[in-house]
Each structure stands twice: as C-alpha cells, then as structure tokens.
Amino acid sequence: MTTTSGTPTTPGDTAATATDRQIAAAEAHSAHNYHPLPVVVATAEGAWMTDVEGRRYLDMLAGYSALNFGHGNPRLIAAAKAQLDRVTLTSRAFHHDRFAAFCAELAELCGMETVLPMNTGAEAVETAIKTARKWGYRVKGVPDGRARIVVAADNFHGRTTTIVSFSTDPEARADFGPYTPGFTIVPYGDLAAVEAAVDDDTVAVLLEPIQGEAGVLVPPPGYLAGVRRLTTERNVLFMADEIQSGLGRTGRTFACEHEDVVPDVYVLGKALGGGVVPVSAVVSSHDVLGVFKPGEHGSTFGGNPLACAVGLEVIAMLRTGEYQERAAELGTHLHRGLAALTGSGVTEVRGRGLWAGVDIDPALGTGREVSERLLARGVLVKDTHGSTIRLAPPLVITKEDLDWSLDQLHSALPR
Ligand SMILES: *Cc1c(COP(=O)(O)O)cnc(C)c1O
C-alpha cells in the first residue's frame, strides 16, 4: 500500500511516525551518499521550514548558501512562475529572449565582460578548469599537455572525477581514481607556497576566497591581494570560486572585495539560482572566455530560459545592495554573539558576514551531537569535519530569530 505522498505503509506500523516512515523509505531506495539529520521537511518560507509532523525549524544552513534570499522568496517565485508560462527550455541550439539580459546583467554585476552559464557549481568549476587550460595553450603559450593549476589544500570545489582528483579530503577522493593530473596543491593561506608553486606551465591559481566546507576558514589578511599581485606578475589567471562565499553571504557581493581584489575569473553557483533552480556561471573577460569556439563546450540546460529568468531576479536583488548590507549588519551581530560563547564548549569561531564556523571543543562533544540537540530545539544546522558547526542562515533572517538561534546554540553546547 502506498499513500499519495509515496510513503510505503504496512498495516500494523501505526506507531511509526510520518518522519520514521519517510526516512525508512529513503534509506531503502536511495544511495547513502549523505547522512542527513532525522527531519523530513514538507514546506518552507523565509528562514523557516516545517516538517511532516508540523514542527517548525529555523534554517541556519540555507542550502549551503543556495538559499541566501530565503525559502519561497516572493520575487523569485513570481519570476519563475511567469517564465514557466512562457518557455522553459530551448537548448542553446536556438536563442531565447532571457539569455542576453542574463549574461549582460551578470557581467555588469561582476564588473566583467563575458558570461558562460552552466547549471551546478561543479560544472562551473570544470568550465573554469577547461577555460584556464585552453587559455594557457592558446594565449599564454604553454606547451601542449603541460598546463598546471595551483589549488589549495582542504579545498572544496565539487564532486566530479577531475575535481576530486585535487581534493585533499580522503572521503571525497578515495576509490575514485585514476585521478586527473595537472594540479599542484599548496597549503591554504600561505602566499609563499603559491609563489613557489607557480612556474612557466602554470595557467591558473584556483581558490575559495573563504574556504566553506573546510569550516569557514578566512585566509590571513593580505593573502588574496598577494595572490592577485603574483598572478598578474606571472601571467597566470586568478580564478575565485565564489560559489559559496559570493552573492551577499559575507556582507559584500563577492568575498574578494574585502581585500579590494578583482580576480580574472569568478566561478558562481548556489545562490545564483535563488534556491529555485540550479544556475551556475563562469564570468570573465572577452580575452579569457573568448578561447571557446562553437562545439568546444556546452550543456543542454546551461543558460535555459527558466534559469535565466530566476538568475535575472537574483541579480536585480543584489544590485540594490540591501542584502549585502543586511549580511554585514546581522553578521556583526552574529559574530558578537558567537564570541561570547567561546570558552564554554566552543574553542574557536571564524567567518565573515552571516557565515560562521564554530568549533566545538572535541573533549566535550562532536558537531553531530550539537546538530542533533539543535534539531530538537528547532534549529537546523549541519556539522562539517567532525567538530565544526557551520552557520549560514538566509540573509532575510530577522535579528530576533538570529538571537533566538544563538540562545538555542548556547543551550545545546556540550559542557
Ligand atoms: C557547493 C560548492 C561547489 C559545488 O557546487 P555544486 O552545485 O554542489 O556542484 C563548488 N565550490 C564551492 C566553493 C562550493 O561551496
């Protein structure tokens, strides 16, 4: 027997809750490539989600920053609904009437010239890698097959075979070889290490301006500016993966702006799709993205009309600066609140804007335990790397809700 929502039910299991049944069915019929918290979300609005039992939770993860504008943002939903009634997909075999505006306005937001739209973040990173290699051979003059890209240890750039080839996380990488060559890994935040790694075959340095998955690691002051200087001097592309750090999260449109740095290439995703559809892009100059000729790269869904319509609304919302300002103001408030927790179960807090990595004292407990206690208190967060809790609420969260979440965190800390 199956209910309308697809939940299998068997006579006699009336004691099982809807949550238990949904989780058991998911366990039975899905690959176990995630370890979700035991909550089954049914609806969401703004910073709040409601589960299948009718319980409400404050979303302090925001889809890893894909939901910067909150759940069901009225402007984004309206843009999507309007486009659903017009045309949703053409493929790039034909032009469509949302494409030019999306590319022009995204380029303008980035202070760049040219946009190459894709869907997921990993695809945009792959696109950036292909861009850098082709640019290296065609423009810089690197001998064929020799191009190298410098990346940072503890990076997270996605899950494709090439991207996990330069991951240093054994969980992400083990058993997925043979690995793609051509990457040099250096410690994050160490400018001298980047300098030592760059040689005549180096085509790009690819970095997260703040490392998200690694635990919201902010590099030392001067690092990004130093990488910018070095890459300019050595004719190497500086590619900033702003998929998680960008589009308002840190209090600026891009995290690179905190050091007045403009990279050669922005890699964007997550919030660009407004939490509605996957939208990613590589944004750069005509010189760099001009290396692609017809047939050399693409994606059936990349730059589709629905994606462009939602992306255009995201860009319009970012253009006002109000979300960035909100992230900066509430971020100062958040970090002040978190600093007060240091010492009582928390060993360190890092971050910028509405984004924080909170290290739980490993002698007292794990990140997972704190996440589960917060779940019971109506706050949704997710641990990363064992002992870190990442906080990244939707930028539309109210100050009152943020304060309430800090109270809950205080109560949930191990002692
Ligand atoms: C999430 C993320 C990616 C990958 O994006 P997907 O859409 O999950 O493929 C790449 N880089 C960074 C910095 C990310 O946070």
UniProtKB/TrEMBL annotation:
InterPro entries: Aminotrans_3, Aminotrans_3_PPA_site, Class-III_PLP-dep_AT, Orn_aminotrans, PyrdxlP-dep_Trfase, PyrdxlP-dep_Trfase_major, PyrdxlP-dep_Trfase_small. Keywords: Amino-acid biosynthesis, Aminotransferase, Proline biosynthesis, Pyridoxal phosphate, Transferase. GO terms for biological process: L-proline biosynthetic process. Pathway: Amino-acid biosynthesis; L-proline biosynthesis; L-glutamate 5-semialdehyde from L-ornithine: step 1/1. GO terms for molecular function: identical protein binding; ornithine aminotransferase activity; pyridoxal phosphate binding. Its EC number is 2.6.1.13. The keyword Manganese does not apply. The keyword Cell wall biogenesis/degradation does not apply. Its cofactor is pyridoxal 5'-phosphate. Pfam families: Aminotran_3. It is an enzyme of class 2 (transferase). Belongs to the class-III pyridoxal-phosphate-dependent aminotransferase family. This is ornithine aminotransferase.
